[in-house]
Design goal:
Glyco_transf_61_cat; globular; Glycosyltransferase_61; six-stranded mixed beta sheet; 394 residues; transferase; alpha/beta
Length: 394
């Protein structure tokens, strides 16, 4: 979760050569991504070596993952060391004619939200301008993860992803970018993006990568009821009364369907399901990331759990949805709608002073407020459903 973002790209352009373990930059032109975006812990895509172009015979160390301020995420990310040297042109086992981008798919990879905010959107921002003529090199490579998002990699690069850690050859490139551009949580700042890329551009890219046909909500739907996808979670932040929620959605005028996607669920399958819908709703959680596959003009409803989580919910999904031109509504549950009432007495700090839990740190927030389930008061929730329905007919 983040608040803001500072970003810049710095390059070494010298007559000297730069090497990076199994990479040689034959023109000595490399770029490193710097920035900070800051609460869960603060996110960033920053690196902070001294990159004065006049410096030679120096070494820089970078961990190419977009959450630099998060020690837990970064503890597993391989350090990439770059060295500038006045020596002769290095021996090359493979000469590439396209630039390389070095990134890590470790960190929190495997969590859908982090897959997109920490890697996929930053990859789009960094690689899209090359129109496929760029070579990806992944460090800490999880082959299953690369396969899971194969559609994205094929749409961004004309070449197979190389394993930075296992490829023993010396690969020579005219240019290497270490790390990825990133702006803010699950979104893009057009003022900082190459060619002014927007979230609409990114979502259009996703539709192309996954061959999604619907570009606008309701397009070609005739008189059918708008389709609402209800994200059903199994363990935490699930709807205790899911059947009642489905009935309420139908009463509001929607065709209601439910979906629960796990780590091993095909992204392409999920993308097609979401794209077939006009609206989506669910309790705050990684599954809401799939709103990115909704057609333009669609609607997202986020259920805010008990515990003063409004800011977190806004940063993670509210702002990104608005940036994506998605109609956005949220519903804040009251304590009676939370299963925390079954665990803690009514005079506990969880209810009387939620902020005191926040003061203990993100770990405490996660262990208390993100473990609850929701019994939605469908009568209280109905006005939000009606607003969501109306947003699709405006």
């Amino acid at each position: 979760m983040t608040q803001g973002q500072r970003f810049s790209t710095q390059s070494l352009n010298t007559p000297y050569h730069a090497t990076c373990r199994n990479i040689a930059v034959t023109s000595a032109t490399w770029s490193a991504m710097f920035g900070s975006r800051a609460p869960r812990p603060p996110c960033s895509s920053s690196s902070s070596p001294d990159t004065d172009p006049s410096v030679r015979n120096r070494t820089w160390t970078i961990r190419p993952y977009a959450r630099k301020s998060d020690q837990t995420a970064m503890s597993h990310v391989t350090r990439v060391t770059l060295k500038s040297s006045p020596t002769a042109r290095p021996h090359c086992d493979v000469n590439h004619t396209v630039p390389a981008i070095v990134f890590s798919d470790i960190g929190y990879a495997g969590n859908l939200f982090h897959d997109f905010t920490d890697v996929i959107i930053p990859l789009f921002l960094t690689a899209r301008e090359f129109r496929g003529e760029v070579q990806f090199m992944a460090t800490g490579s999880k082959r299953w993860w690369l396969n899971k998002y194969a559609h994205v990699f094929r749409a961004l690069s004309n070449y197979e992803v190389l394993d930075f850690d296992k490829d023993a050859r010396t690969n020579c490139f005219p240019r290497v970018l270490v790390g990825l551009r990133c702006h803010k949580e699950l979104s893009i700042d057009p003022a900082l993006a190459p060619y002014g890329y927007t979230m609409s551009d990114f979502r259009a890219f996703l539709r192309g990568a996954y061959a999604l046909n619907r570009t606008r909500a309701g397009a070609g739907s005739g008189a059918r009821a708008p389709r609402l996808l209800i994200v059903a979670r199994k363990h935490t932040r699930s709807f205790v009364n899911l059947e009642g929620v489905v009935r309420a959605a139908k009463k509001a005028g929607f065709e209601a369907v439910t979906m629960e996607a796990g780590v091993t669920t095909s992204v392409a399958e999920v993308a097609r399901t979401v794209n077939s819908c006009d609206a989506m709703m669910g309790v705050h959680g990684a599954g809401l990331t799939n709103f990115l596959f909704l057609p333009e003009g669609a609607t997202l409803v986020q259920i805010v759990p008990w515990g003063e989580l409004e800011r977190i919910c806004a940063i993670d999904f509210g702002i990104p949805a608005s940036d994506s031109k998605i109609n956005y509504f949220e519903y804040k549950i009251n304590k009676e709608e939370s299963t925390l009432m079954d665990i803690y007495p009514s005079d506990h700090a969880v209810f009387m002073d939620p902020r005191s839990i926040h003061k203990k740190g993100w770990g405490a927030v996660r262990e208390v407020f993100l473990q609850q389930n929701v019994k939605l008061d469908v009568r209280r929730f109905m006005p939000v459903l009606k607003k969501a329905f109306k947003s699709l007919h405006g």
